[in-house]
């Protein structure tokens, strides 16, 4: 059930339009703050977002932006309970103000943006913390506004991101998790092709969700389409703009490992190690294992790295599938060394972690030969 609700995190967009952008100073605070936030310059981002909040205390934008920053600065939030309280307070305030604006004018697309965003983040947070009834409640609220967004991508290009995510995940997620199929009757149908098209457009036509569009389009190419090479230029553009962003570095290291670019990949593995964050250190071990196993054919060294990776914790959204890659690697190594029972054990463990299309294909391949 935990992963079922995580896809709701993707059904959000953080977009700002309307009267606040007629204020050049406000636009500067927002633009600079977002750039600082994505580059992990959190002190500077806080100053920009707090300045926006001081001038527009009744507008939902600053509260949502501060929540977004908190999520990146204290990743993962479940490890930072005090910051989690502030995060929730910002989101609740953003939704409260956005809902009031929508009640005054149900044609206010700006209010719709913030209602989708705040409730989407709240649903994902509660799911992360196993509070599924709260997650369902926020999901219902979010979806009521998302339906408006789906019909207004031409009027407001910033909706392209959330519409793209919805159309794509509405199809792919139930395919991966059949248990939720009975519940999908309550949601409008999606279209993977249209979803990918909207996501691609969001990388070109939007302002405030451009970076989210580039990241998640690459994420979709890698995870669900099984084409990590298509994600490389998207990730390259992100790192050129934001070289200090931890998730973008992680994505780069992973994509390079999965496309057999091992020499360049080690540069990013070292960057992950220097962060001193266990989730990323464990991922770097997996990527080194792939390089040793696939690139150098040094199976003993690969096994060492894969086993070392298992000593680190994993994070549900971005490193759980990477943990699955380690188990698949250990399965292959055990099989090649004639340890069939051990290979079966690792294959069984891998099943609990993998959603990647290519990983599932590899799981099926190994299942057939074991």
Could you describe the 3D structure shown?
This protein has helices at residues 2-6, 24-38, 42-55, 61-73, 81-104, 109-128, 132-150, 159-176, 192-205, 210-223, 228-241, 246-258, 262-274, 278-296, 299-309, 320-336, 340-351, 357-369. It has 370 residues and is mainly α. It folds into two domains: 2-236, Serine Threonine Protein Phosphatase 5, Tetratricopeptide repeat, CATH 1.25.40; 245-369, Alpha Horseshoe (Serine Threonine Protein Phosphatase 5, Tetratricopeptide repeat), CATH 1.25.40. Helix 10 (210-223) packs antiparallel against helix 11 (228-241) and helix 14 (278-296) runs antiparallel to helix 15 (299-309). The longest helix is centred in the N-terminal third of the chain and has 24 residues, at 81-104. The radius of gyration is 21 Å and the shape is globular.
Q: What CATH first level of the largest domain would be assigned?
A: Mainly Alpha
What would the average pLDDT be, to the nearest integer?
89
Strand content: under 5%
Question: What structural category do the secondary elements indicate?
Answer: mainly alpha
Q: What is the element string, with H for helices and E for strands? A: HHHHHHHHHHHHHHHHHH
Question: What form results from the Cα inertia axes?
Answer: globular
The amount of helix comes to over 70%
Query: Which blocks of ≥5 consecutive residues have pLDDT under 50?
Result: 1-18
Q: Number of DSSP helices? A: 18
Radius of gyration: 21 Å
Q: From the 3D coordinates, which CATH architecture of the largest domain would you assign?
A: Alpha Horseshoe
Total separate domains: 2
Number of strand segments: 0
Please outline the major beta sheet. none
Ends: how far apart? Answer: 29 Å
CATH topology of the largest domain: Serine Threonine Protein Phosphatase 5, Tetratricopeptide repeat
Keywords: Signal
Organism: Aquirufa rosea
Protein name: Tetratricopeptide repeat protein
Signal peptide: 1-18
């Amino acid at each position: 059930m935990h992963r079922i609700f995580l896809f709701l995190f993707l059904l959000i967009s953080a977009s700002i339009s309307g009267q606040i952008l007629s204020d050049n100073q406000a636009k500067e605070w927002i633009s600079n703050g977002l750039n600082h936030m994505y580059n992990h310059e959190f002190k500077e981002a806080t100053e920009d977002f707090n300045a926006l909040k001081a001038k527009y205390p009744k507008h939902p934008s600053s509260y949502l932006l501060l929540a977004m920053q908190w999520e990146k600065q204290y990743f993962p939030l479940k490890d930072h309970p005090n910051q989690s309280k502030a995060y929730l307070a910002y989101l609740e305030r953003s939704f409260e103000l956005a809902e009031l604006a929508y009640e005054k004018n149900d044609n206010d697309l700006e209010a719709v943006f913030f209602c989708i965003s705040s409730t989407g983040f709240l649903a994902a947070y509660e799911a992360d913390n196993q509070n599924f009834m709260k997650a369902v409640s926020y999901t219902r609220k979010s979806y009521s506004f998302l339906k408006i967004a789906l019909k207004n991508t031409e009027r407001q290009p910033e909706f392209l991101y959330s519409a793209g995510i919805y159309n794509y995940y509405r199809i792919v997620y139930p395919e991966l998790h059949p248990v939720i199929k009975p519940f999908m009757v309550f949601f409008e149908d999606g279209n993977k092709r249209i979803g990918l098209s909207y996501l691609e457009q969001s990388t070109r036509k939007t302002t405030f969700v451009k970076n989210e569009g580039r990241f998640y389009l690459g994420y979709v190419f890698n995870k669900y389409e099984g084409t990590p090479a298509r994600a490389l230029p998207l990730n390259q553009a992100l790192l050129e703009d934001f070289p200090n962003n931890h998730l973008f570095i992680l994505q780069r290291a992973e994509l390079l490992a999965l496309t057999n670019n091992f020499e360049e990949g080690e540069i990013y593995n070292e960057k992950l190690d220097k962060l001193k964050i266990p989730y990323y250190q464990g991922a770097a071990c997996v990527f080194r294992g792939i390089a040793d196993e696939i690139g150098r054919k040094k199976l003993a060294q690969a096994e060492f790295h894969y086993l070392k990776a298992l000593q680190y914790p994993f994070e549900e959204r971005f490193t759980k599938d990477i943990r699955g890659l380690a188990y698949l690697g250990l399965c292959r190594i055990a099989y090649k060394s004639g340890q069939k029972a051990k290979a079966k054990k690792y294959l069984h463990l891998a099943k609990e972690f993998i959603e990647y299309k290519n990983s599932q294909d590899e799981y099926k391949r190994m299942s057939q030969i074991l």
